[in-house]
Amino acid sequence: xxxxxxxxxxxxxxxxxxxxxxxxSTSDPQSQLERRAEELVSLVDTMGVVSEHVEYVTLRQPNSxxxxxxxxxxxxxxxxDELSVDLVIFEISLPxxxxxxxxxxxxxxxxxxxxVILQIFADRAQTKEAxxxxxxxxxxxxxxxxxxxxxHLSRQRGGMRGTxxxxxxxxxxxxxxxxxxxLLLKSQLAxxxxxxAVQRSQRIESSIPVGAIVGYxxxxxxxxxxALTGAGVLVEDKLFATLDPTTRAVKLPGGExxxxxxxxxFVSDLPHTLVxxxxxxxxxxxxxxxxxxxxxxxxxxxxxxxxTTVQVLEELGATDKPAIVLANKIDKMEDGFGVxxxxxxxxxxxxxxxxxxEGLDTLVEEIAxxxxxxxxxxxxxxxxxxxxxxxxxxxxxxxxHIEYQEDVIIVTARIDGRYQGPLLEYxxx
Length: 429
Ligand code: GDP
Ligand code: MG
Fold this sequence. Notes:
Layout: H1 2-14, E1 17-24, H2 30-46, E2 50-58, H3 70-83, E3 87-90, H4 96-106, E4 109-111, H5 113-124, H6 128-142, H7 168-203, E5 210-215, H8 221-230, E6 247-251, E7 257-262, H9 275-281, H10 283-287, E8 290-296, H11 302-315, E9 323-328, H12 337-345, E10 349-351, H13 360-374, E11 377-383, H14 387-396, E12 397-404, E13 408-415, E14 427-428
Parallel strand pairs: 1-2, 1-3, 3-4, 5-7, 5-8, 8-9, 9-10
Antiparallel strand pairs: 6-7, 11-13, 11-14, 12-13
Helix pairs in contact: 2-5, 5-6, 6-7, 6-9
The structure holds guanosine-5'-diphosphate and magnesium ion.
């Protein structure tokens, strides 16, 4: 009985709760602060941590040891106690020394926005390259922070509290080990990049079209995936036992099955040390058959964000695939100027709202149209002794009609160009 209670308690405390701090100067407009807060809440949520409270701190003069000054530190100590949060998250990058001092004063983990982003990348990294790239960014981040007592990023090693009381020699050793590891990772990465082309061809194993949902954090990507899969269109998950948690199978009204992947969101002001790690986590988008680019139409930064998204996709070589652009959150939109601008850059743009479900039907129709373009309906005249080709069409395509004639099998089907090779000579004009 006693053990049971303890277990429940342990499970309950596994979800960490955080106090979020938005640090601003006196001249920052309120609306901008709110956007920064919203983005951080969204990032923290993606990390699986509950945002208990958001506190705005106006900074007139940065304090060299605590940034926010002793008065504010004291106020926040009381707040941390009252809320009994597990960690404090700053919306800015914190110098290691200040981070260390605040952890000492508050006796809890203090992390910054970079660390949140790193954690999200680490959770999402899937390809070999992404795993190495994120590990590299993580080690480079931790190198100047070795003396920290609380390490949030070492979650997988269990516990929040670092156990080591770092002496100078130990510290030197750790530093050298990490530097060596960084060198090793860099050489491994160089190899992986040259192998990338090979991996890419091995990955094409499913005949089901894959769509990647891309866009900024907080634009509504995860909500969209949930809305599309939650409306009774979810395909039996067991069929796709190997799917990673951010990919779902969806059946369109016309019966076509597709896979949709949620990707790591873009963030504003991505620290330059994390750019490579971010791009590597987007590799999945590069392998998708089509893209859904989600924009937040209620944000004044929508056009700039869309432009950045397209630029990064271009750098990754992912702009050759068909894309659908969503102007989401139109229920919160103030005027239509942003969407008009977006339309002048890309067409068509679908206006949508996850809250009112507006535009979701149009999106689903657009996906179906796009799939038809990717896999046009064709008719094949297959010799009766080539049943293997009929089987091939069933396995890799969608057969709409079969007619067995005396000397020929007439099949009407859709199949991806990648699988059409053996059928080409039987294609009927
Ligand atoms: P992601 O970071 O792109 O995955 O964004 P989320 O799906 O987590 O959504 C971020 C926030 O925006 C959440 O609080 C959602 O409830 C909210 N949201 C998403 N779509 C809409 C929408 O169409 N309208 C409004 N008003 N809020 C939305
Ligand atoms: Mg999300």
